Amino acid sequence: MRPTFVAALIALPFLWSVACATTEGPRSSRSRNVITAEEIQSIQAATAFDAVQRLRPEFLRRGRVNVRDDTQALPVVYVDDVRYGGVDELKGIRASQVISIRYLNGADATTRYGTGHTGGALLVTTSASSTQGVESGPIRD
Hints:
By secondary structure, the chain is of the alpha+beta class. The chain has helices at residues 3-20, 37-43, 48-55, 106-113, and strands spanning 34-36, 63-66, 69-73, 76-79, 82-85, 98-104, 121-126.
């Protein structure tokens, strides 16, 4: 055998272990499917819609219903596990009331809530869930 070939065979396991090793650097605690109250506070959004639009705009993008149909669907909004309406309803929810906004894809939303969720669902948990409910109507400062 040639010396360079032998050296490559010896070095290969070492290089493989280095390539497969994980680094213990700082990790982002940000979930791609959840917006937290801390994230919302950091951008000073006025409404839940503003927060979603700025932090996870992909939640608001239309999804295709199926391959043969050009019909598109948006997520259905649930506030504290109660169906609230379409994504425009997020404009009536104060960002300061939001604890989290979780996105469920179409399959998961259909499994949880039944048909009519091809665009997925946005599950909004509010601080008002333990008291009287979400304030609706125009946002006033």
